[in-house]
Amino acid sequence: MTRLKILPLLALLIFSLIQCSPEGNVENDEAVTAVIAKFFDAMRASDGEQLRSLITTETTLKTVTVADVEPVLRETSFDRFITSVEGAEPGTLNEELTSLTIHVDDNLATAWMDYRFYRGEEFSHCGVNTMNLLKKSSGWKIV
Question: 109 with 102: CB under 8 angstroms?
């Protein structure tokens, strides 16, 4: 074989031998799921202190809206979001997850969730949330 034919085969062999960490494991998936559940429980309880315990100081809240048929990304301070949650009567903000998919790689997790949002008993809207989480020494935190 010529050198040009051997190099791609050698590269393929090396890449196939590299050990990659698995995409996730049950323990991490369960821990991430628990943080997400606590987040929505805290929202239902209007518990700003609990919400703050689940995020990092760098956490941002971004929303996609449509203006003149064009999608627009809007960023809101997470403190502003928490203040609005704290101002709600406990039990009136209910975000019901209808699906949840989690991908974990080492210290990073991404969660994709479909939801239906209710104000009290009244349906308000539905959509999709995504969350990125970072595994800190104190556990998984929403970023």
Answer: yes
